[in-house]
Amino acid sequence: MPLVSMRQLLDEAAKGGYGVGAFNVNNMEQIQAIMEAARDTKSPVIIQASRGARSYSQDKFLYHLMLAANELYPEIPLVMHLDHGNSFETCKSAIDLGFTSVMMDGSLKEDGKTPASFEENVAVTKAVVDLAHSKGVTVEGEIGVLGGIEDGHGAGGSGLEHVTDPAQAVEFVAQTGVDALAIAIGTSHGAYKFSSKPDGSVLKMDVLMEIHKRLPNVHLVMHGSSSVPKDLQDVINQYGGKLKPTWGVPVEEIQLGIRNGVRKINVDTDNRLAITGAIRKVFAEQPEKFDPRDYMKPAREAMKKVVATRMTQFGQAGHASDYAPISIEEMKKYYTKAAAK
Ligand SMILES: [Zn+2]
After folding, report:
1. Which helix (DSSP H) or strand (DSSP E) does residue 269 occupy?
2. Helix or strand or coil: residue 164?
3. What's the pLDDT score for residue 279?
4. Alpha carbon distance 148, 160 (integer Å)
5. Separation CA 105–CA 338 (nearest Å)
6. Quick one: average pLDDT of 260-287?
7. d(CA 256, CA 188)
8. CA–CA separation, 107 and 11 (whole Å)
9. I need a surface site. Which of 20, 146, 152, 155 has the fewest CB within 10 A?
10. Rounded mean pLDDT of 302-315?
11. Are 47 and 88 in contact (CB under 8 A)?
């Protein structure tokens, strides 16, 4: 099967009432970890690359690794998604390369730091939607601004400064025609999301529910949604790491989101923690080792475990063979028809 459309994956997830994890990658081992987890749990999957990942890997390497994944795991519906595109050009280059889905994050200006106006966001997102849909490619937009900075992208701050306004979300979807919508409800990128277990004062699940009520047919996306579990932090600190105490988004809050329209959940930090903990453990316990495979294998295994756990918790497990995948070629017709209505 070809790489598939994210729109189809999320439409199916909405029908089935589950969420789909979107996991970030930079290299072969991370892709392998995700594909093994998807095979074990029979999960459809979204693999995403940020601008940072594209430059780190020279994105052509990443693209061909994705084709290899697709060839080696033909039973798994697989989407290749651009995370946080900062401009029309960035999204276009991803589409030209073969990504089947792009995020145009017009909530920030092209510098990836300064919050943009509503009008600026609509204009750039609409331009990307027009191009992407003409090629059958899915578009995720963002309204409201997330907290934190990751890979040099983000406005910083706590995540509560630009919480999404539900009325604006409705307007944004109507004016742009995005397939999926990332919203800001107090979460942040990176490991340091909350300074204690989050409650309703910092994690605005009520805002999410209000947006879902007003936009029941739009696929919502939760960014910055690693759970940052204590056991993963502990492994790192036990073997010489220096993480400060921190809290992520509890899995039960994500599951509440999934019951309220969340179809895509972005997870990166948890996998980074798992990999680093596993490598530190080998370095500390077996300092005589120097073959990279001696620590990359346990690292890959540790990430696979986290991903498989999330796939089960999000509900995507068991759904890999529910449907025949639609190629982006066929999706072109779908968008042409929708536009003619
Ligand atoms: Zn994000």
Report:
1. helix 269-285
2. coil
3. 98
4. 11
5. 23
6. 98
7. 18
8. 24
9. 152
10. 98
11. no
Residue 302 alpha carbon to ligand 1 centre in Å: 23
What is the pTM (predicted TM-score) of this model? 0.96
Instruction: Name the percent of the chain in helix, strand, coil, to the closest 5.
Output: 50, 15, 35
Question: Quick count: other Cβ atoms within 10 Å of Cβ 246?
Answer: 16
Q: Tokens 């990504």 identify what position?
A: 99
Instruction: Write the pLDDT tens digit of every residue in 135-181.
Output: 999 999 999 988 888 777 888 887 788 899 999 999 999 999 999 99
Q: Is the pLDDT of residue 88 over 70?
A: yes
Q: How far apart are CA 31 and CA 309, in angstroms?
A: 16
Separation of alpha carbons 120 and 324, rounded Å: 38
The rounded Å distance from CA 80 to ligand 1 centre is 15
Nearest to 278 by CA among 256, 291, 295: 295
Contacts of 196 (CB under 8 A, 6+ apart): 247
In angstroms, what is the span from residue 5 Cα to ligand 1's centroid?
Answer: 20
| 83 alpha carbon – ligand 1 mean position (Å) | 7
How far apart CA 66 and CA 226 sit, in angstroms, is 23
Structure token pair of residue 75: 């039973």
Confidence (pLDDT) at 161: 81
User: Residue 1: pLDDT band by 50, 70, 90 thresholds?
Assistant: low
Q: What distance in Å separates the CA atoms of residue 120 and residue 94, rounded to the nearest whole number?
A: 21
Q: What is the pLDDT of residue 105?
A: 96
Q: What spacing in Å lies between the alpha carbon of 189 and ligand 1's midpoint? A: 6
The torsion angles phi and psi of 284, rounded to 5 degrees, stand at -75, -40
Longest dimension (CA), the chain: 66
Distance 182 CA to ligand 1 centre (A): 8
Residue 83 is a catalytic residue:
yes
Asked if 203 contacts 186 with a C-beta cutoff of 8 angstroms, the reply is: yes
* Strand pairing category for 262-267 and 101-104: unpaired
Report how far residue 296's alpha carbon sits from residue 29's, in angstroms, rounded to the nearest whole number: 8
Catalytic residue (one of 83, 151, 165, 179): 83
